Amino acid sequence: MDSKKIKNKFPKKIRDKYRYSYKKSIQEIKTIIGKIQRQFSRPPFPKQEGVINLNLGCGNINHTKFINIDLLNAPHIHYIREIGNLRCFHDQSVDLIYASHCLEHFPHSKVPKILNEWFRVLKDDGILRISVPDFDLLLKIYEANDNNINTIKLMLMGEQNYQYNFHFTVFNRKSLESLLHNSGFKIVKEWQPGTDELTTFNDTSILKLKIKGKDYPISLNLEAAK
After folding, report:
1. H or E segment to which residue 222 belongs
2. Backbone angles phi, psi at 4, to 5 degrees
């Protein structure tokens, strides 16, 4: 169903008065419609026999080697669902999970459970490749721009322009590495975007902020092996 048709079912007076609730309701309706549609038809899956790569919280990114999972109702999304619940995949069935700038959208109390779920579906020696805002790097950016909080506000708290775009958790390398080890991952190391086909995404993992003529990366990119 077209979003404009959904929108027109609500009087303008109500839309203006309850704008946020309205946007939230529209997003929820579109998500429900998308889930129903996926029961009958899904976009083509990557043609990789015996290999399953997941792009969790993919947003508008459509990588041909990955199965896309997001609450966004878009044509390239294979599964419209919460990325913290992967019950559509069996234990030890996934080769690679890519999750860029989505883990911070969950309350910190839920993060261990989510990492445990991702660990569950990965094969032995499977890889979790993750990117999140790096609190330590954001502090450097904040200080470099004369302690201007607006410089890092969006990276810390999200744009908050729709219900799923709020940040609830902060990470630095020490905290995230500890969480990954607690979930059972053995080897944790940094990964560099763009080193091969499976690390090349035009997304926030490569984002840099320019402060007084100098580029500052904002992301913590860690790879964890099961």
Report:
1. strand 219-225
2. -65, -35
Three-state secondary-structure class, residue 110: coil
Q: Could you tell me the pTM of the whole model?
A: 0.84
Distance CA 82, CA 56 (A): 9
The answer to whether the beta carbons of residues 80 and 38 sit under 8 Å apart is: yes
- Beta bridge partners of residue 87, listed in sequence order: none
Cα torsion 182, 185, 187, 191 to 10°: value is -100
Question: Quick one: tokens of 2?
Answer: 């077209």
Residue type, 174: K
Q: For residue 89, give the H/E element and its range.
A: none
Contacts of 212 (CB under 8 A, 6+ apart): 144, 145
> Long-range CB contacts (< 8 A, 24+ apart) of 80-85?
80/31, 80/34, 80/35, 80/38, 81/35, 83/56, 83/57, 83/114, 84/110, 84/113, 84/114, 84/117, 85/117
pLDDT tens profile 80-139: 999 999 999 999 999 999 999 999 999 999 999 999 999 999 999 999 999 999 999 999
Evaluate whether 91 touches 126 at the Cβ level (below 8 Å).
no
The one-letter amino acid code at 151 reads T
Are 191 and 128 in contact by the 8 Å Cβ rule? The answer is no
pLDDT grade for 25, boundaries at 50, 70 and 90: low
